[in-house]
Amino acid sequence: MQDLSGLLYKIRHGLDTQVSLSRLRRHRTLAEAVAGRTVLITGASSGIGRSAAIALGAAGATVLLVARRADELDSAVAEIEARGGRAFGYPCDLNDFDALDAMTAKALADHGRVDILVNNAGRSIRRRLDESYDRFHDFERTMRLNYFAAVRLILAFAPAMRASGDGQIINILSLANLYGGPGYAAYVASKAALDSLATNLQAETHTENLRFTSIYLPLVRTDMITANPVYQQATANALTPEEGGRIICDAIIDRPRRLAPVMGRVAAFVDATLPERADSIRNARFTRGM
């Protein structure tokens, strides 16, 4: 039975409600959405990336898994194949742009094109402003993986998507991009850059059936939170990797422009209309968490 606190958390943030309503309206299954399609997922060796890859492989997609850890990629590929799916591992450190470019070239040579790109790999850093004065490199390395690596992937795979008249680019963002994330400025800023990029590229390609989908995820119980004591206090209410993976699959079926929890959308509205009040709320939350 689902933990009550976790259920209340998801009801409060509107995740179950939003996804359930979209399921009532949809006219196709995941298998129909990915039939004959190639999906590339970064950060696919563990967490929500791996969970999504397994579900997509089981539904019939050709899944390309990208991550640094080759052994874990091999394990994920083997699990997908054991379930009758088709999967290929591409070990790559996305921080190394030469390696990234070589990986994208090989993926295109092997499969012709990528129909759906899921920019899931990311780095989170928790560090206050007064702890950051001599740590500019924190901002550099966060932008390098969370933004610039994703941009290179988009630039590599978008031409074939546009030529085919179809495609989807899914960016895994954070609820903090709507709700605020004081103490996580480097991380939130890098994700905001990716979100802004998608907004502008979607406007350019609006009539081309190329869909940019932004998913604003709340906390998910993955390896990224294990070293963070603040995150660990909230793990009981966090989404599981399987739940996060299902949200990615729902986004592939429904192709929404944005998929966001209710509280995040409310917070974004308050921020746009009453920014001083929103800043006060964020400051109070930040002060309590220090």
What would you say this structure looks like, in words?
- The protein has helices at 4-13, 15-25, 30-34, 47-59, 70-82, 97-111, 136-164, 176-179, 185-204, 229-232, 241-254, 262-273, 275-289, and strands spanning 38-42, 62-67, 86-91, 116-119, 167-174, 210-217, 258-259.
- By secondary structure, the protein is an alpha/beta fold.
- The chain has a single domain (4-289), classed as NAD(P)-binding Rossmann-like Domain (Rossmann fold, 3-Layer(aba) Sandwich), CATH 3.40.50.
- Helix 4 packs across helix 11 (241-254), helix 7 (136-164) packs parallel to helix 9 and helix 12 (262-273) crosses helix 13.
- The protein is globular.
- The two termini are 34 Å apart.
CATH topology: Rossmann fold
Tally of contiguous helical segments: 13
Largest sheet: 7 strands, parallel
Write down the Rg: 19 Å
Instruction: Trace the largest sheet across and list its strands.
Output: 3-2-1-4-5-6-7
Unreliable runs: 1-13
Structural class: alpha/beta
Number of domains: 1
| Mean pLDDT reading | 86
What is the annotated CATH architecture? 3-Layer(aba) Sandwich
Describe the structure in brief:
The chain has 290 residues and is α/β, with parallel strands linked by helices. It has helices at 4-13, 15-25, 30-34, 47-59, 70-82, 97-111, 136-164, 176-179, 185-204, 229-232, 241-254, 262-273, 275-289, and strands spanning 38-42, 62-67, 86-91, 116-119, 167-174, 210-217, 258-259. It has a single domain (4-289), classed as NAD(P)-binding Rossmann-like Domain (Rossmann fold).
